[in-house]
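Hi D.,

Good news: the full-assembly prediction came through. Inputs first.
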Amino acid sequence: MNARLVAVALLAFVLLNAPLLSVADTDARVLGVPALVAYLFITWALVIALVALIVRRSG
Amino acid sequence: MLTGPVVIAVSFAYLGLLFAIAHWADRRAAAGRSVIASPTVYALSLAVYATSWTFYGSVGWAAETGMGFLPVYLGPTICAALWWVVLRKMIRISKEGRITSLADFVSSRYGKSTLLGGLVALIAVVGIVPYISLQLKAISNTFDILIGYPELTAPADLDPGSFLSDKAFYVALVLAAFTILFGTRKLDASERHEGMVAAIAFESVVKLMAFLAVGLFVTFALHGGPGDLFARAAATPDAERLFTLESTGYGSWVWLSVLSMLAILFLPRQFQVAVVENVDERHVLRAMWLLPLYLLVITVFVLPLAVGGVLRFGGGAVDADTFVLALPMAEGQQLLALVAFIGGLSAATGMVIVEAIALSTMVSNSLVMPALLRARSTMARRPDLGGLILGVRRATIVLILLLGYLYFRVAGEAPALVEIGLVSFAAVAQFAPAVLGGMFWKGGTREGALAGLAGGFAVWLYTLLLPSFARSGWLPEDFLTDGPFGIGALRPQQLLGLDVLDETSHAMFWSMLVNVGLYVAVSLRGHRDPVEHGQAALFVDVFRRAPTWARFWRGTATVAELQVLLGRFMGPDGAGRALERYADARGLELAPAAKADPDLVHHVETLLAGSVGSASARVMVASVVEEEPFGLEEVMEILDEASHVRAHSRELERKSRELEAATAELRAANERLQELDRLKDDFVSHVTHELRTPLTSIRAFSEILLDNADIEPAERERFLRLIVEESERLTRLINQVLDLSKLESGRAEWQIEDVDVRAVLEDAVATAQQATRDRQVELVVRADGELPPVSADRDRVKQVLLNLLSNAAKFCDPQRGRIEVRLGPRGEEVRVDVSDNGPGITPAERDRVFEKFRQAGETLTGKPKGTGLGLPISREIVTRLGGRMWVESQPGEGATFSFTLPATRGDGRPPSGQPVTREESAR
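Then the structure:
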């Protein structure tokens, strides 16, 4: 479980940080929501779900 | 409705509710039905991370930079994924060492160092005071704004007046009183505050609900949902720029993520709720996803609120830090405004209560008590120390809140909430190298931790705190712009001319560089005393060993002495009960005059550590027991015992495997030796047998000649000829034995040269012709193809050929004898076959003809035709020359003896003169 959690943390750090962030940092809209906002919250939620999944499975 | 008395009454009612919840939780805990023994409550209590900084400040921040505020909440999410690795270890260590504060944690890790604990406590207080001041500021400002209804007052227009008329002052006092009620009603060895945790978890729910209420109102009641809100914002230049990160550098984003990853672990209040108040380390599992989820939910409406505020008020008319309150007020929603105020109040009080309790534990355990004990103050000799400690803590709480108020007055209104919060985050981040390093690296030393912490703290003071003072007018402005004494390289915000980072990132970079650098460099150079060695191993290997915390003590103390010591903190009754529980749990009888064993002494020390910190507890215990300090070797011995046992058993397994292999080898070697010995015996007996036969003949004929002087001349000549023949045979035999032994021992001399096998064969055939002619044997030689030269000893090759030819002549058909010799190249070799048409060799004999003194047909004729050494010698020679020799035969169809010799290689080098063993050549 530890190895998976560390992997998720690394993944989260990369996905939720520069420079990958700049890809979403545009004027585009997703269903009326600015692309950056949508990207950040969706990615964030996915990371949380991933951690919950790992924890549930092993715990 | 929003008048001063009403708001004050509601506020106190809210605080009263909190207190009721805490009281109820404490009663439930006493009844054994704890409400906080739930992972959800644990996760909610961790949400004390979201303070009024989140509640008000993040909206203000978002109004400035858009999503730039988010890393403060993303960092904890990333960090939370690692909690099972990091936080669980902190919890386990703290439980086993009865550690009740971050200062104690660091001090305990580095040999229970008083100095280090004091430094951590000092950094924490200095670093957190601005943060507390931020909460006071938020409460008093929002209170003033709320009662100004329906006017919207800007915080800058609020006149605090003298401190006696300043509401923030009273807020500080009320919160201090409340914190004292929550945290220091009694002295508890475990330093756990169930009631407080329950109240904090409740506060987390309140602030979330309040924030969501305002967020939903602004998004869905004032606007037609997020799409509508964002669409309207897109038309407003002021709001539109918030949708990208143009005003937040990517560098700042990364640094903020790292900073908040550290803050969620090392803020004193986070340590308090996450580690000290933890009842079950498995609760961490749920907090790992529930706390990030909480943070996600509470931040979802931050940007809509910021955008809504900018749309409603335009730029600058209303301080963005107050949008959460100002938006409902501007829309005339009095009740919602009051809800928002209570939400902000809960966010602020939660933080202040936990932070002040955590800091007071730190200050009293790591600063005040060690100082009192060291100074041998009369206070420290009082029989009842428990009261003293409670007094110290209460005074500390009041002092910290007053310091917070002072900072609020001094720093004034200038800095935004965000800036103050980041200053504190950067301060607690300085603990990271010493704590994380201490948990995962045994090599970290006290000197390293001291140097790192002091260096990092100094840089933090210089690059973050002093500039904030300078901006408040406490220091001249040119201190920032020109550097101290006009030295440009020392400008606090552009140290050494580094001007590509924003203020916080700049401070983080330099302080972390200095901190980590000094910690590692000094640790690598330094040496550690025995206690430090022991503690380092206990921390790093906390999951790997059975608790051995008790074993680093040796000395003499009686149970009664320890009970008296304990009584000074817990009261005589409490001490008696604690010892009884200890004795019952272990089934022991504790006689007062009995000598205390190390376990009991350690138990007493940990009980005390909860109240006074590990460093002080150690000093106190040492004051009543005669301690014999451990030497470094002994500590290492104890510590390494377990790991040594493991290492030894692994070593043992490896050795036994090696031993088995060696035994097998030895057995094989022994068998081989026995075989050789047997062969030698056989050889000797064969040789003697072979010697005896001609000797017997010679002797018999000689005796006949000697005894019969009148023997006929013809007869005499025949006998003499026989004697000569037998002597020759004897000589030949002896020569061959010598030859074989020379060959086998490798002492034979070889004249290796390029040899034309055809010429040698012709030579040998010519020599053998005589013998074949005598026996009327037909000798046919067939040599075809181009023969490459071979590297060999010419005479030896001839010897082999002669031997094979004479053997063939001996064994071929007596009437129509025929020998065929074939010579030809075979790849890289030259092959010679010598066939006869004799009786042949049975398969069983085929393997044995090359053994010494074995002769084919021996059993048939009963009379040896040679010495039995020719073939072994030939084979030895061929093998030594790098070739092979074998025989093919069917009984009754003659036999073909063949051998090969390697051709000279292209490079002209002879084949290696290395002797080739028989086994290899047989393969």
